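S.,

Sequence below, as promised.
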Amino acid sequence: MWVDVVAAFKAENPDVTIELITDKKLEDVISPNMKAGDYPDVVHLALGRPAAVTETLIKENALLDLTSMLAMQVPGESKTVQQKIAGGFTESSLTNPYSDGKTYLAPMFYSPCGLFYNEQLLKDNGWTVPTTWDEMWVLGDKAKAKGIALFTYPTAGYFDAFFYALVYEVGGADFFDKVTNYAPNTWDLPEGKTVVNIIAKLASYTEKSVPANANNTNFLKNQQLVLDNKAIFMPNGTWIIGEMADAPRAAGFKWGFTALPKVTASGDSYSYTWFEQAWIPAKAKNPELAKKFLAFLYSDKAAAIFANAGAVQPIVGFADTLEGDNALFYSIYDRGAKAAMGNFAATDPVEGVSIADAVFEAVNSLVNGTKTAETYVADIKKASDALRPALKK
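The prediction came back faster than expected:
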């Protein structure tokens, strides 16, 4: 799709020379050059990847301010980039990492995240999708009696979207800000205890083989549990459909998708909106042309090319054009769920401390029993306390 998008841009800008580099491990290709002072002009590399190149550049204040790009007219169209981008996407810590009202990362390719399941399995057993966590535990007990686990996950890293949505459900935006900005005593609040209790209880309902396969080599085995009716729910994003397209599955299998259950019957249900990011290094040699190329990525022409490859741009009204499974997934916010966005705030590096390890990766230890809810939250407190003084100003 990038080859086609570059060709479309060049058709309108014939004097521009573009060198396109695509690689599954892009970090390994561009990092040595950047360390030597040779920076690309535009990079599409999302937050949350193991190499953490994007996070490192944020910590080093090495990204170009893109706020002026948002005010640019989309090439070939009448609207500005800001007018094209759906609400909320440029007001998140995933695009505005310093909380200074400026955008440094451009939102790309969004995907609602939630719980995927086999509709036929629930139908065959006369079960319904739980609307509250209390109903979830009841279903877990019913499934256990039939030798079916309530829950699986690909890798513990997939708990990021799950965790953020849960935090919103439990305490709303104010509590989310406390959690993600490492506010003191956050985990001693009733909301903090509720989050930990739900995660710990869910760990007890998780298929016990999951941690052993929760890695980049064997994660498909954990996803296969849903297709084989060995586990009911799995946190994931819309890419799961293509990822498992050729995998064997139970007779009558049909993908289902739901937001997280509510904490209370009168509460809100949330689905985290996961999206990727594109950015311009502060030391790019052609920053103005780079911004023009980024602006083009929000054109209807570019969005159609991306959509043909299954990548959906966060453009106002674009989801209305989707069909099939994608119509189901992207309509989740039309079916009552609220959108959760954002992540842990950027900090200066603190040696030996990773909030992702403490919050997400530690779920493996909850499932296999090497951590208790008490030790789990104690480690989260310890990491938060260490990171609080290192918050980026």
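The first strand starts at residue 43 and ends at 44.

Coffee later?
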